[in-house]
Amino acid sequence: MAQCPACKKPVVTGLNSFSGLMVLLLAVSLWMLSFARFDGPKFDEAAGSIRRALHAPALSGSSAPLSSCGQEPSLAEFNQEIVLVHLLDQMNVLLAKQLTSSEAEIVATDRGIVVRLASDFLFQPANLQFRKESLPVLQGLATLLVGVENAVFVSGYTDNAPPPAGLPFPSNWGYSAGMAASVVQFLSETSGMDPSRLQALGLGEFSPRQPNATDAGRAANRRIELFISRIRQAPIVEKVVQPPKPAQDGEPKVPTLEPAAVVP
Question: What is the pTM (predicted TM-score) of this model?
Answer without folding.
Answer: 0.67
